[in-house]
Amino acid sequence: MNEAKVNARLLGIDPGEKRIGISISDPSGTISRPLLVIQFISYAASAQQIVQLCEEKGIGQIIIGVSYDKDGNASFSGRKALRLGEAVHTISDIPVIYWDEYGTTRSAQRSRIQMGVKKKERQGHLDDVAACILLQSYIDEQIMQKGREQG
Fold first, then answer.
1. Which of 48, 65, 61, 64 shows the shortest CA–CA distance to 9?
2. Is the residue at 1 inside a domain?
3. Contacts of 49 (CB under 8 A, 6+ apart)
4. Do residues 11 and 60 make contact, with C-beta atoms less than 8 angstroms apart?
5. Is the distance from CB of 55 to CB of 145 less than 8 angstroms?
6. pLDDT tens per residue, range 115-127
7. Which one, out of 34, 40, 117, 120, has a CA that is 20 to 30 A from the CA of 146?
8. What is the pLDDT of residues 71-82, one digit of tens each?
9. What is the pTM of this model?
10. Do residues 94 and 61 make contact, with C-beta atoms less than 8 angstroms apart?
11. How far apart are CA 34 and CA 131, in angstroms?
């Protein structure tokens, strides 16, 4: 797999059955923010939308959230995420990294509560926020790993 571009943005993807949450990092790759939600059409069509977005935004690496079962195997939805990643990989040479998405939706719900969003306004989709949490957890782990290697 190709090396990620240096100082390129990262794209976080939280795939769901109907919607795909997408987040993006800042140019330095240290802070994630929600970007948008796309409707899942098919693996090929969704992959095409993702690759086009990557080209527009200067993405150097794609982080896709995968859910795992208690035995460490990709769950049903995790296998769907892997298929989406494979579809992206077949049409682009942008590196695709799979990252454990455990708890991202719950964290997105908690963050809205902590921000004081009223219960009625918290209804709806959190896909892009979950993608943001997923990407930030990946970024934070990379920063900690670099610190361990240097220390």
1. 61
2. no
3. 38
4. no
5. no
6. 565 555 545 567 8
7. 34
8. 999 999 999 999
9. 0.83
10. yes
11. 7
